[in-house]
Amino acid sequence: MKRELRPYQTRAIEMLRQSLGSGKLRPVLQAPTGFGKTRLAAAVVEGALAKKKRVIFTVQALSLVDQTVRAFWDDGIRDVGVIQGTNPMTDWSRPVQVASVQTLQRRPFPEADVVLIDECHRWFDFYPKWMRDPRWQSKPFIGLSATPWTRGLGRYFDDLIIAATTQDLISEGYLSPFRVFAPSHPDLTKVRTVAGDYDGGDLSGVMNDALLVADVVDTWRQRADNRSTFCFAVDRVHAKHLQAKFAEAGVSTGYIDAYTPTNERDEIQRQFHNGELRVVCNVGCLTTGIDWDVRCVILARPTKSEILFVQIIGRGLRMAEGKDDCLILDHSDTHLRLGFVTDIHHDVLDDGRPRARAKACDRIRLPKECPQCTFLKPPRTPKCPACGFKADAIDKTEVIDGELVEITRRKKREDTASEDEQAAFYA
Ligand SMILES: [Zn+2]
Predict the structure, then answer these.
(1) CA 292 – ligand 1 centroid, Å
(2) d(Cα 247, Cα 399) in Å, to the nearest integer?
(3) 210-241: per-residue pLDDT in tens?
(4) How far is 194 from 230, CA to CA, in rounded Å?
(5) How far is the CA of 67 from the centre of ligand 1 (A)?
(6) Which of 32, 84, 334, 411 could form a disulfide with 166 if both were Cys (CB 3.0 to 4.6 A apart)?
């Protein structure tokens, strides 16, 4: 049965039509978590089919092939073939092909008139070769992503369509509001940066610290009110350490990584939803394509990547019955570095040139931490909405420069970075 399009989905389709109508051939549709991206994709596919066009829809993980076929099926798109290993749905005669990137790049593939690249922030070297192939040059490639901010993406795509932001969807009631606390402040001054993000090995050394891990568990018990929780860790050792400490504290806690077999993962999901498991510790693998009822997100994995950050927080923003908000416990200082996810905006695609990138980032005004309860307040909010504390002295600096980060004295965690070190770091 076909689902109705929501107003902003209709708007997205209209904007896409205008883009293609104006001669663009490589538009990207930015659709945040909760946008109903697959529904939108189905509408684009329907539009193409109505004009007797053939469509290839690429997905970047095996598990997403079946999920996408099922979603198309639910929208009444049944004439679907699959390009993926020895999948029994292989049938090149069908006008819609759902294809795994891994299989596509190793094989010849059927002709099509339109290509949709799902999760296009995950870039494969194969895409530009395909896009530049003489047979494909003049055919539209439409990118879809909640976070199309990959460096250099603007060299391959020529338009960015933003039909709704995360904030729009929260305001309109399609996504959950969130509250953030920043309970601990790891000292990352000695962590190296590799390929734009923190070095995993260095990060593991810092974050796997016994006091930091203990604080994750303590804070959760203090603040989370037994909410169903995803805990994002640096690596497997760190995730298992967190799991063990939660278990020690009597909190039933699961563990998932990229190697967890599907049946085991399904069982963990079942236990998570029926309340047998309160917390699931994981290593980044619960970012895309996962739709669990998460009401608290623990960020124990510092990142410089806006893409990873927004994808992680996005796991907690789905609406659910009886859910008023998502609680975010940020033990990584990521909000203090990157801002709230609702403040991260890029009006244009990154073309790889340094200047465009710096300009896009400047505009974010960082949240401020309440010195009393560690709640992260929006800039220029003198009174803490969580505990009512009013930080008079600090507001003076705020008047001088709205972008200054408030570095407050920690009541606990004297063992972590000193104020000066942190000030130097954030500067
Ligand atoms: Zn407060």
Answers:
(1) 30
(2) 46
(3) 999 999 999 999 999 999 999 999 999 999 99
(4) 26
(5) 42
(6) 32
Predicted TM-score (pTM) of this structure: 0.86
Name 369's Cβ contacts closer than 8 Å, sequence gap at least 6. 182, 336, 375, 376, 377, 406, 408
- CB–CB of 56/116 below 8 Å? yes
State how far the Cα of 276 lies from the Cα of 383, in Å rounded to an integer: 38
CA atoms within 13 A on the CB side of 196: 10
Distance from the alpha carbon of residue 334 to the mean position of ligand 1, in angstroms: 19
Which CA distances in Å does 382 have to 179, 363, 369, 388?
17, 21, 11, 9
Centroid of ligand 1 to alpha carbon of 391 (angstroms)? 9
CA 398 to centroid of ligand 1, rounded, Å? 17
Q: Which residues of 275-287 are buried (b: 16+ CB within 10 A; e: fewer)?
A: eebbbbbbbbbbb
The neighbourhood of ligand 1, an ion, using CB within 5 A, equals 370, 372-373, 375, 384, 386-387, 389
115, two tokens: 């290509």
Q: How far is the CA of 373 from the centre of ligand 1 (A)?
A: 4
176: left (phi over 0), alpha (psi -120 to 50) or beta: beta
- Alpha carbons 401 and 287: distance in angstroms, whole number: 35
* 358-389 tens-digit pLDDT: 554 556 789 999 999 999 999 889 999 999 99
CA–CA separation, 85 vs 82, rounded Å?
A: 9
How far away, in angstroms, is 424 Cα from ligand 1 center? 24
The single residue listed with the structure tokens 């923003």 is: 317
Taking the centre of ligand 1 as the mean of its atom positions, its distance from the CA of residue 390, in whole angstroms, is: 8
Q: How far apart are CA 113 and CA 133, in angstroms?
A: 14
Distance 393 CA to ligand 1 centre (A): 15
Q: Give the number of other CB atoms < 10 A from CB of residue 357.
A: 14
Burial environment of residue 420 by CB neighbours within 10 A (0 to 12, 13 to 18, 19 or more): exposed
